[in-house]
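Why show two proteins at once? Because comparison is the fastest way to build intuition. When a single record is shown, students tend to memorize it. When two are placed side by side, the eye starts asking what differs. So, the first record is below.
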Amino acid sequence: QVQLVESGGGLVQAGGSLRLSCAVSGRTFKSAAMGWFRQAPGKEREFVAAITWSGRSTSYADSVKGRFTISRDNAKNTVYLQMNSLKPEDTAVYYCAADFGYYDPTNPPTNGAMYDYWGQGTQVTVSS
């Protein structure tokens, strides 16, 4: 059974940083493209960042480009989201997702419908 477990969320002041982690078990992690999405109250889920199975290519939403960094450690079956210069509008539940068998080396998937498995989410709250 595939499991994705996020951690690292919390309350932080504007301008601060947080690092989210997502541990994957149950399938070969290095065969999966990984993504981070978020959903704020009253809003639809939106793409945040994605990374290919090798880690060589990444993609970011314009709203987080230059502030967030996605990375992965295939030896630890974990994907990370380093979030710097946080803003109140970054407040949301953050979800990691896995797309197994996605082997495009240059374009990680940014559409949530392409992902097979999702974590339970971790709350990030940024105070002004």
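Second record. Ask yourself what differs from the first in the token line.
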Amino acid sequence: QVPLAESGGGLVQAGDSLRLSCTASERTFTRGNMAWFRQAPGKEREFVASIPRNGEFTYYADSVKGRFTISRDNAKNTVFLQMNSLKPEDTAVYFCATSLTIYLNSQLASQEQSYYYWGQGTQVTVSS
């Protein structure tokens, strides 16, 4: 059983919006932070955004601050990524991830090694 399943990717034009969703198959997979990472062709995977279980804090990469918004619905075991004002450089495979521990530190919340469960990714392509 896949622990995390992403959806909502697609092909859009620069300036458009997309909303990604990621649903966990079990509630236990969501007890920590839920986060989004992305990997562009030929590049390493990078942090995008993270939100702890209580949703009191959110953490963003500088490249997406002010354009992307992360949120979560614990009742539905789901995390969302609202992406506005998309740019061609946002083109990547977007991965959802969850941690076993709640991180309220931006440095820890942004590190790949903080996350235990990963989805298979959803492609986002932004044309110019």
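One difference worth noting in the second protein: The two ends are 37 Å apart (CA to CA).
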